[in-house]
Amino acid sequence: MNRHSTLAAILLSTGLLGAAAVQAAPSAAAADTAPSVVIVHGAFADGSDWTKVVGILQDKGVKVTAVQNPLDSLAGDVAAATRAIDNQPGKVVLVGHSWGGAVITQAGQDDKVASLVYVAAFAPDAGQSVETLSKDLPKAPGIDHIVADASGWLSLPPADVAKYFAQDVPAKQARVMAATQGPIKGAAFGDKLSVASWHQKPSWFVVSQNDRMINPEAQRIMARQIGAKVTELPTSHVPQQSRPADVAKVILDAVASVK
């Protein structure tokens, strides 16, 4: 019998091993039931757009999943978000950026979703699409710089990523963001939501004051409509890149509110 086996035998015979196991169980159970965060990126981006915030949340002990959206349709992105939600052990704080706001509004109907966090995002109502919602909102200048390929997939040229999408990040970082962006099928913006989970779920909203892709006043209008707790940041369309600690704080507030 080696030293480890002997120690185990002594602990077992004295009942200490059983006690230790019982004491460890609650903390393991607590970890399993703690809220997770699922992040849904927007158009012209992918999950790596959230790397900085993910790291901050993980350092705080929060389990995080960044969804990789196909960006082919509302239904396709909702399905990807729903798979991520289903894979979580307990309640979920669902975060959406830009187009991802429409996705979490629909996917948020899942019973596991406790709350919603919109980051410079669209927040449509049931029966609306991003396209119909946008017609009634102030327009942002970057919208005129989106280009379509022959198959109807939309993207932003690198110079316009730097000027309109992420004007407050270093030029080198903006070039990487342009190279890793996810083109979105243009028709997705016309897909209508069947539900709007913000009617039933508490919500938070990060308004980007210098946003050139979704007009800041449009963001304020949507935040008021959904009754969100609002944080305003002096950022471009990507506060998760330029002010990740501030965005993480909002998400952590939502996590802390989950009962």
UniProtKB/TrEMBL annotation:
Signal peptide: 1-24
Domain of life: Bacteria
EC number: 3.1.1.88
Transmembrane segments: none
Keywords: Hydrolase, Signal
One GO molecular-function entry: trans-permethrin hydrolase activity
Gene3D superfamilies for the chain: alpha/beta hydrolase
Domain AB hydrolase-1: 37-249
A Pfam family it matches: Abhydrolase_6
Protein name: Pyrethroid hydrolase
Organism for this UniProt entry: Pandoraea anhela
